[in-house]
Amino acid sequence: MAFGSRPAGTGKHRGSSRLSKKTAGYAGIAAIATTGVVGSLAAPAFAADNHSSTIGQDNGLGAVVVAEDLAGDIADQAESQHRVAEQDAVKAQAEADAKQRAAEAKRMAEAKAKAEREAAERAAREEERKRLNTFVAPVDGSYVSTQYHAGGGMWSSGSHTGIDFHAASGTSVHAVGLGTVVEAGWGGAYGNNVVIKHNDGTYTQYGHMTSLNVSVGEQVTPGQQIGLSGSTGNSSGPHLHFEARTGSQYGSDIDPIAYLRSHGVSL
């Protein structure tokens, strides 16, 4: 009887072995889903109990279900990761495009601002050039009270070497054009006078002034105040004596009205 009980124990041992083999079969199928090596992993599980049709059939059906489930999960996960990657790529590209557009807009704005600034600077330089090359009347809103070459005993040469502008004492006297002061001070019969050498090589003289605002060597611009009119020197009353010359010395005088008109001054 003791020997008769042994087959029952052996049968129980086989049941446990079958469960282990079945579990191993599932594990093999899981490996199949991740590695794709079907034959090398599935064959041992199926061959472990080839004389038991029940176990073989159970292993085969279980393996298919597990493989399909794992494969589906892996495919879903892969598809989800692919969508996320695509979205990240689209977002990154959009950000890169936005940065490029912003950089291009900034570059264009800077280029436009630079061009406008340079244009404004050129316009200012041109305006200054025109201003410096422009001549003005020596006294604003005045008129010629004594003509050029007028005769009379008041002048040592027997005639007037310049023109007189009507001006009350203390009226502002202006340089007629851009130039450098070559004489500023007492000039004998001219009283307090200023002589300016202009860029074209000509000279202008301003006489009988009551006070001076410039000194020798100073550069003056058109319309700059150089002194105040008066009646100093050989003068019969307040006015401005104005001469135009080809040289710095007395006797090189030319017609002052023609000179001013040739430089665009209306009298």
UniProtKB/TrEMBL annotation:
Basic residues bias (residue ranges): 11-20
Region (Disordered) location: 1-20, 109-128
Boundaries of every M23ase beta-sheet core domain copy: 159-249
Pfam families attached to this UniProt entry: Peptidase_M23 (PF01551)
Name of this chain's protein: M23 family metallopeptidase
Organism this protein belongs to: Streptomyces virginiae
